[in-house]
Amino acid sequence: MSRPSLWRVLLAGPALVPPVFATQLAGNPRVRLFVFLPDQEVRDGAEERLAAIPPAGEGASPGPPPITLLEEGGEEEVDILLVDLGKLDQDDESFRKMFDSAKAVGLLARSPAARITLEEFREVPAERCFGLRTVQGERGYGLEIVRLPGSTAETLDLASRWAQDVAPFHVTLEYDARGGMLERVRVPLETEAWRLVRESGIPPALVEHLSRAVFGSEWGVFARVLREGPSRRGEVARLMAAVNPGDSRFRVVADAFPPDRPGSLWRDLAKGPGSAAAAGGEEAPKAVLIAGSPHLAEAWSETLYESSGGRVRAHTLAMWDSEGFEDADLKAVGRHGPYDLVLECLLSPVEDRLRLIDFLQPYFAEGGQLWAHTLNAASTIAVQVVPQDLCAVGFGGLPPLWDIPAVELMKPSSSDTADLARAAAAAGHLGLHPFEVADEPGGVSARLLATLINATAYVVREGIVASPAEADQAVKDALGLPASPFALADRVGLDVMEAVIVGLEVFLGEDRYRVCPDITMRIEAGAVGQVTGSGYYLP
Fold first, then answer.
1. Closest CA to 80 of 43, 57, 108, 115
2. Cβ proximity of 32 and 7 under 8 Å
3. Can you say how many angstroms the Cα of residue 214 is from the centroid of all Cα atoms in its chain?
4. Is 208 in contact with 442 (CB distance < 8 Å)?
5. Phi, psi dihedral angles at 292 (to 5 degrees)
6. Which residue, of 37, 150, 351, 461, is most buried by count of CB atoms within 10 Å of its CB?
7. pLDDT tier, 287 (very low <50, low <70, confident <90, very high otherwise)
8. Are 176 and 146 in contact (CB under 8 A)?
9. Is 145 helix (H, G, I), strand (E, B) or coil?
10. pLDDT tier at 109 (50, 70, 90 boundaries)?
């Protein structure tokens, strides 16, 4: 079916004019929009509102209004009919005329979690129908085109071509998943951000800052919530929890999404995240050792070299487990030591990490520091073999992915605030921006990134979209990310993301942290990402 040069679209049955995305359609020079309102009282007051909408296109010359109000449905032949079936009378002759006049019919979801169904409308030509959900994104409202029972390939193709011309992004869903695809990714992400605030006690401004840093986006998680409206996002979260009662990923967090008013936590977002307090008089680390999994060790070595302006060339001891190095490696470690700072980033079970940390203790300089990663365990657990006289703290473990060289620091229960202050000072000398967060697996950045990747993997596994690439691109476009979730997974490593989710499950004992089986199967097949040369987009 060919793409028309001008889309003729009829919007029928909305309670308000314009509906949520009518203005966006009206502002598109490739759309001629018609509106039919079956309610006479609503129709009587619509003329003034329609006249106030400017002509389509920047600098457009005066002409007919971009929206034409029809007295009867079916007056005009159209390419796309968008209809809220719940607002139309099937016995009205206009009802049949409208369907006869359209090449394809989009059935609007009445709420984010409402089902799109033709069960009560047997006279509707199912082969020409598709479901439609609108999703607010960074550059306007995107569209989810939903395959319904009876939808033909020709109908879905026409709907997809139309969506490509009128929306900043769109995706085709293989069936009507409750809430759509994108909300099944966005709601778990926002819910996890609220858990960090309400349950882990992390300031919302810091969660906002670190979410921008890890995603590389202009807007963080909470800025998006505030822009769309906390009440609106709270309603969506509660609806998603109601229609997915057995799925703990959508369990509502207490006191989440408070109203935006003076004195609320939303005002705190403008204050900035603050930094971890740094100790005075701490000298810059001169000798640095990074011991751990090859991809993490290499990434942190590159990070420290760049953040320090080339002053720090860390020695690396790369291994997959605590026994994965040779005598020559140990000789090299001894030759470059003793070390003022040791970063431990071994992505292994805690017992294996403890053996490595215990093994490295002779290589510390007097007054040296140990930073133990918290990707899969709290630092309190990871540093339990460290002597009291050694400065030991936790650090996020996830290397900075973008231009903000942030490092998350955690205080183990066995240490005091002086240790954290010393670590913050060392981080500053290395050109890193230190932030104190709760001592929990994943910290903030890795926890949010793992949630995003895991949620995207689940919508693929559930068959909501035809391919991983389609889901990946839709999430990227909707959230305005510079890199898609699966591209970030290739870069960071699926094993890192799995470790975070498993660590949270063990630490918190909650079933909401479940690794998508597709991620586990990819890891078992060696498709971990850049570290193995195979991933979602590799080779």
1. 108
2. yes
3. 10
4. no
5. 165, -160
6. 37
7. very high
8. yes
9. strand
10. confident
Residue ranges, CATH 1.10.1040.50, the chain: 452-524
Tokens of 475: 């999430």
Q: Rounded distance, CA 236 to CA 389, Å?
A: 51
- What phi and psi values does residue 371 have, to the nearest 5 degrees? -110, 115
**The pLDDT value given to residue 21:** 72
**The two three-digit tokens of residue 451, written as one number:** 């949630």
Q: Cα separation of 521 and 518, whole Å? A: 5
Residue 251, SS3? coil
Average pLDDT over residues 45-72: 59
Task: State pLDDT tens for residues 336-363.
Answer: 999 999 999 999 999 999 999 999 999 9
- The token pair at 194 is 């609220």
Task: With cut-offs at 50, 70 and 90, classify the pLDDT of residue 34.
Answer: confident
pLDDT category, 73, cuts 50, 70, 90? low
**Sequence ranges of the chain with CATH classification 3.40.50.720:** 7-173, 288-436
Q: Any idea which fold 452-524 has?
A: N-(1-d-carboxylethyl)-l-norvaline Dehydrogenase; domain 2 (1.10.1040)
- Cα 475 to Cα 486: distance, rounded to the nearest angstrom: 10
The residue count for the chain: 539
CATH code for residues 288-436? 3.40.50.720
Residue 526: which region, alpha, beta or left (left: phi > 0; alpha: psi -120 to 50)? left
Is residue 199 pLDDT above 50, yes or no?
yes
Asked whether the whole model's pTM tops 0.85, one would answer yes
Kind of pairing, strands 391-395 and 406-410? Answer: antiparallel
- Which residue is listed with tokens 């309610």? 39
Instruction: Please give the angle made by the CA atoms of 282, 288 and 291, to the nearest 5 degrees.
Output: 130
Cβ contacts of residue 45 below 8 Å, gap of 6+?
none
Looking at 229-326, list the stretches that DSSP marks H as alpha helix, in order from N- to C-terminal side.
Answer: 230-243, 265-268, 294-307
Residue 88 scores a pLDDT above 70? no
- Write down the CATH number for the domain with range 7-173: 3.40.50.720
